[in-house]
Amino acid sequence: MTTAPTKQKRQLLADPAMTESTPGSEFAQAASLGSGGEDVTVSFRAYLPTAFPLFADRPRYTVRQLMKMATIRDGNARYVHEPRPERDRREVSGTTFATSPEAQFKPTLGEAELTDIGVSLPVPPGLLEHPRLLASFIDYRLLVRFGTTENQVLLHGSDDGKVPGLVGLPGSRVSRTEREPVDLLTDAAAMVEETGGSCDGIVAHNAVYWQAVESGLLGKLAEAGIRISRTRMIARNQVLLGDFRAATTFLDPEISTLTLRRGAAEDGGDLLEASSRMGLAVHLPQHLVLLSQEGAGA
User: Fold this and answer.
1) Per-residue buried b or exposed e for 240-276, using 16+ beta carbons within 10 Å of the residue's own CB
2) Which of 20, 93, 166, 280 is the most exposed place for a label (fewest CB within 10 A)?
3) What are phi and psi of 275, to 5 degrees?
4) Where do the H-state alpha helices sit in 59-165?
5) b/e map 126-137, b = 16+ CB within 10 Å
6) pLDDT the model gives residue 34
7) What's the rounded Cα separation, in Å, for the pair 251 and 278?
8) How far apart are CA 213 and CA 221, in angstroms?
9) How confident is residue 84, by pLDDT bands cut at 50, 70 and 90?
10) What is the pTM of this model?
């Protein structure tokens, strides 16, 4: 049975914006005060994946962290979109502004839609009797899965089509090669900048990331101000490079929920669900370059 007075659950929160606490501790407190056997829903004025505790002392960039962030009101958001015109697809800039690709960009007004993304986990039997363990389970296990789901959505799009995926994004550029992607990262970074951007981020598979560590390239990229987001949500034979902060804005209306659903798991047990609302504005798709190794498996 779903808890009717959701408003009461919100009132129980000591820190709904999570300025001093964590989603897990806030939810465990609310769940412990609820009556047994009922669903529990708790709302937050924050974006849940940002609260993953290990970000504080073990920084590992997500795709979102390569982007500009904007806190917005709930609802579709207007933004300026500047694609390259199809009639002028020059790849290399001349030595004057008039002969640069960006001289031909035509600004238009776009509208980004918001969508809810999330993840769920079955609750181990007996866990609800231990509030501290429940809090840790949410903060360390549920939220890390949420981060993986977020990377998937940003790279490949949301199921409802409201968030476009950056891999294969219309208007972005593709560089195909037979060589290992790690061998061409600096060439592709220079290619990003031919449209007037400044390459500030790379999304790569974990295997490519550690190849860059082994070769010493990772440190050199860091010196150039380039951050790498490593994730299994991109194929091993692909690397996405771009001026992420100029090209994209991650939209956050600060609407999230944690829900305990009684008996909703496949085995009849309880289920924990985390959900956050988000959107993505793509201003300059041509500032993104997908480096793809041909003839290689994903």
Assistant:
1) bbbbbbbbbbbbbbbbbbbbbbbebeeeeebbbbbbb
2) 20
3) -140, 140
4) 131-136, 143-156
5) ebbeebeebbbb
6) 59
7) 6
8) 10
9) confident
10) 0.89
